[in-house]
Amino acid sequence: MIPLFVDLTGRRVVIFGGGNVATRKAVFFSADADVIIVSRSFSKTITSLPVSRLQLDVAVLSDTELERLLFGAFIGVAALSDREQNNRIGRICRRKGIMFNNANGERGDLIIPSASGGEHYTIAVSTDGESPVVSRFVREQIEKMFFHLDEMVVFQGILRERLKTIEPSQKRRSEILWNIAHDPSVWDALGRSIKEAHKIVNRRYLHG
Fold first, then answer.
1. Exposed, middle or buried, 187 (CB in 10 Å: 0-12/13-18/19+)?
2. How far is CA 67 from CA 15, 64, 193, in A?
3. Second-level CATH architecture of 12-112
């Protein structure tokens, strides 16, 4: 498997299940995708999300009926407590060429990472499905270590444009930006303001 960032705007994601696991996956996808949730019941959180809900018992549905529910889907997610039902959904997705994530059962071809982000960045961590707890732990450690990551992304963008006007060497520009990203005092200053960070960078790296 390889990591990818995919624009799901207008794409359909069908999630089977209405419990805690299905809820987490619905929250993950609902900000961007057109999400449909199929389940006998739904968590309180699911009822508050901008998703479509179909109250159905998957166990009594035929394969043909499941195929109809999955029509037009880009991603299918099985998050039922019944492994065999999850696996059945997976087999249908594979036949139809639909990306599939299985929360409990035979592995699908899509793993949902532990993710977080800001206005200008996204972090996603995966252990290839073996340990969601470790994925979450690593993500949380990154968030703690780089508390001002949004500000650094913005700051680096400003500096890149400025350096293009004062430093002709692309290699040297990259070195300067790299050194700034590794400077703890710049990160600390960003916690106060970008103006404070600019003072440090001007003094240490731009000399003006």
1. buried
2. 13, 5, 54
3. 3-Layer(aba) Sandwich (3.40)
Asked if 77 and 25 touch (Cβ cutoff 8 Å), the reply is yes
Structure tokens at 119: 């206005």
**Edge-to-edge strand ranges of the sheet holding 12-16:** 52-55, 34-39, 12-16, 73-78, 99-102
Using CA atoms, how far apart are residues 130 and 135, in angstroms rounded to an integer?
Answer: 9
Segments in 3-148 forming alpha helices (H): 20-30, 44-48, 63-69, 83-96, 132-145
Token pair of 4 as six digits: 């990818």
Q: 31-59 pLDDT, tens per residue?
A: 899 999 999 999 999 999 999 999 999 99
**Torsion angle of C-alpha atoms 66, 69, 73, 79, degrees rounded to 10:** -60
pTM: 0.80
Neighbours of 181 (CB within 10 A): 13
Whole-number Å distance between alpha carbons of 139 and 108: 23
